[in-house]
Amino acid sequence: MYEISLLTVMSFSVIFALSLNLITGFCGQISLGHAAFYGIGAYTAALFTTDGGSFWLALPLAMAVAGFFGFIVGFASLRVRHDFLAITTMGVGFLFTGFVRQQEFLGGEEGIAGIPDPGIGQIPYMLLCAAFAAAVIAFSLYVKRSWMGQAFDAIATDEDTARTLGVDVARYKLTAFVFGTALAGLAGALFAHYVKFVEVESFDFIESISVLAMVIVGGIGSVWGVVVAAAFLSVLPLLLQVFADYKLLIYGVLLFAVMYFAPGGIDSLMRMLWRRISGRRTAE
Amino acid sequence: MDALLSISGVSVRFGGVDALADVGFEVAKGALLGLIGPNGAGKTTMLRAVTGMVRPQTGSIVLDGAEISRLPTHRRVRLGLGLSQQIVRPFAGMTAVENVALAAGYAKTADPLKALATASRQAERDRARTLLDLVGVADAADALPAELPLGYLKRVEVARALALDPKVLLLDEPLAGLNTSEAARLADTVVDLNRQGTTVVLIEHNLSEVMRVCRQLVVLDNGRKIGDGDPAEVMADPAVRDAYLGAASEAPGEARDAAA
Questions:
Q1: Residue A283 pLDDT level (bands cut at 50, 70, 90)
Q2: Last residue of some domain: B156, B189, B211?
Q3: What pLDDT is recorded for position A260?
Q4: Which residues of A192-226 are buried (b: 16+ CB within 10 A; e: fewer)?
Q5: pLDDT of residue B38
Q6: Are B121 and A147 an interchain contact pair (Cβ–Cβ within 8 Å)?
Q7: Contact A135/B46 with Cβ under 8 angstroms?
Q8: What is the overall mean pLDDT for chain A?
Q9: How many domains does chain B have?
Q10: Which helix (H) or strand (E) holds A279?
C-alpha cells in the first residue's frame, strides 16, 4: 500500500535528519558529507544480510561501523572550524562515493542488489521504522534537556568560552559525531532493507545537502521542526512528480527563503504563530 | 606564606612583539592581588597565559602545587581557575541564570556520558540565583543577555566564574562599564569573597577601587614587570608613577566612559 511506503520513507528520513541535527544543530558542527554515514550504514547492512547475516544484527552492526568512521571524521572537527570543517566534511562525502565506485566487493557503479527482505511484512516493517523514529525523537528531546545538551549548546555558541567553564570541548564534539553518525548508520540500514538495493548515487553530495536542507528548513537544533521538515520533504517527491523533477531547484529556493526570511526555520515560524494566537487570546 | 599560584619566567611573543617578557609573580593563598598597568602592558595576555588561551613560549605556571602550563584550558579550570573576561562572552541563547547554572554544573559536565545521564538542574539553578543575588543582579536572572545592559553582563560574567568554585578567581576589568556605586558594590563583593577564602587576581583600570581593596599590586608595562608588592609602596615608585600616570593622563575620555 502506498501510505505504508510513505510512512516508512518518512520514518528513516526523520532518523537521518535528526542524526545530523545532533551534530550540526545541537553541537554546532557543520557537515556537508553526512550522507556518507547513511551510506556506510546502508552498505554495511546490505553486505551483511546478502551474505546471510540476520537483519536484526545488521542494524547494530551498521550503527557501529558508521559510528566508528564518524569518530575518525570527528577528529577533523577538533582541528578545523566553521567553513573549513564544511569543506573537510564535503571531502569526506566525496571520498566515500569515490571509494565505493572503485570497490568490487561493494558492487562498484552497479551497487548491491537482492538485499533480502527482513521477512516481517510491509506493515510491521513500517511500524518498526516508525518505532525507531519515535525512539530517536525521544532521545533527541532528552539529550537537549540533559547536561550534555547544555554543554553542546555552549560549544555551538562559543567553544572558547565553553572551555573556560571547564567543558572538554574535544570529547563533546567526538561524542556528537559518534552518536550522530551511528544514528545515520541506523537510518541507512533501514533504508537499504526497504529499497532492497543500494547504489552510490543514493549517498552522494546532493543527498548530504538534502539532509542539511531538512535540518535548516526545520530550524537548526529544533527537534520538532526538523521532524516536520524531514517528514514533509522526504515524501513530497513521492507525492508530486513535479517535486521529484525539480527537487534540487525547490530545495535551493527553500534554503534561500529560510535563510533570508526565517533563519530559525519552521521552528521559529511555529513559535511566532503560537505567540500570535496566545497573544490574541490574552487580548480578548 | 604559601603561593597558591606561582608564575615564573612567562614570555609570550606575538609575531615580533614581546607581549610578555620573562614575567613572574606569586599569588599567596588568600591574596587579593591587583594586576595593573597601562593599556597594552600585557595584563590580559598574562591572564590568558594562566588559563591556557594563550600558549607562552617559555615559563612555568604552578597552581596549588600542580604544573599547569602544558594543560588545556578546561583542565586548568577544573584544577581551580575561574575567569571573568574583559569582553563579556555570555551564551546568547541562555538566560542569565542558565549561563551561571551551566558553570555551576561543572561536576556534571566533566564527562559527556555522565552529562547525558542526568538532566536535573534545580540545584544548579538555585546556586546560580544565589550567585546572581550576591553580585547584585538577581532581578536579571531570567533575562537573555541581549536584553541586559553591559553593567549587568559584567556581573553575570563574574557570577559565572564564581559558580566554578575556583581556588583562584581571575577577574579582567570587572568594574568597567559600571557606575561608581555599582563598581564600589561589586568591589566590596570581591573583598567579601576574598575574606571567605577565595584568592583573587584583579585586573582593573579603576585605580581608586584597586588602591582601596587590593593588598598586593603587580605592575606591568610593555610586557615587563616594573613593580610588585604593597600597593602604597609600589605606587610610590617613580618608575611605576611614570608608566602609569603617563598613560592615564593621555586617556581622560576612557575614564569618563568607564564611569558612565
A1: low
A2: B156
A3: 87
A4: bbbebebbbebbbbebbbbbbbbbbbbbbbbbebb
A5: 87
A6: yes
A7: no
A8: 92
A9: 2
A10: helix A265-283
**For A142-167, what is each residue's pLDDT tens digit?**
999 999 999 999 999 999 999 999 99
B174 and B249 housed in the same domain = yes
Residue A268: list chain B partners with CB under 8 A.
none
Residue A181: phi and psi, rounded to 5, are -75, -30
**Average pLDDT rounded to a whole number, residues B246-258:** 45
For position B198, which CATH number holds? 3.40.50.300
CA distance B10 to B172: 19
CB atoms within 10 A of CB B190: 25
Put simply, the answer to whether A151 touches B109 (Cβ < 8 Å) is yes
ipTM computed for the complex: 0.88
- Whether residue B106 is found in the same domain as residue B231: no
The answer on B171 and B144 residing in a single domain is: no
Contact check, Cβ <8 Å, B102/A143: no
Q: Are A55 and A193 in contact (CB under 8 A)?
A: yes
**Looking at the structure, do residues B61 and B189 belong to the same domain, yes or no?**
yes
What residues have CB less than 8 Å from B59, skipping those under 6 apart?
Answer: B7, B8, B9, B10, B11, B22, B23, B24, B49, B69
Which pLDDT value is given to residue A250? 87
> Percent of chain B scored above 90 by pLDDT?
68
Residues B233 and B206 in one domain: yes
**pLDDT tens, A156-201?**
999 999 999 999 999 999 999 999 999 999 999 999 999 999 999 9
Q: What is the pLDDT of residues A252-267, one digit of tens each?
A: 888 888 888 888 888 8
Percentage of chain B lying above the pLDDT 70 cut: 93
My answer on whether B73 and B182 are in the same domain is yes
Domain check: are B245 and B143 in the same one?
A: no
Q: Is residue B46 part of a domain?
A: yes
Helices (H) and strands (E) in chain B, counts: 11, 10
Q: In this structure, is residue B24 part of a structural domain? A: yes
**Predicted pLDDT at A200:** 92
Task: Count other Cβ atoms within 10 Å, centred on residue B13.
Answer: 14
* Number of A–B residue contacts, CB under 8 Å: 86
In a shared domain, residues B104 and B129: yes
Q: Is residue B161 part of a domain?
A: no
Mean pLDDT of B104-124: 93
Each domain of chain A, given as residue ranges in start order, spans 2-205
Interchain CB distance below 8 Å, B102 and A150: yes
Interface of A with B in 143-162 (CB under 8 A): 143, 145-148, 150-151, 153-154, 157-158, 160-161
Kindly report whether the global pTM for this prediction surpasses the value 0.95: no
Superfamily of A2-205 according to CATH: ABC transporter involved in vitamin B12 uptake, BtuC (1.10.3470.10)
**Residues of the domain holding B90:** 85-156
Domain termination site, one of B123, B156, B189: B156
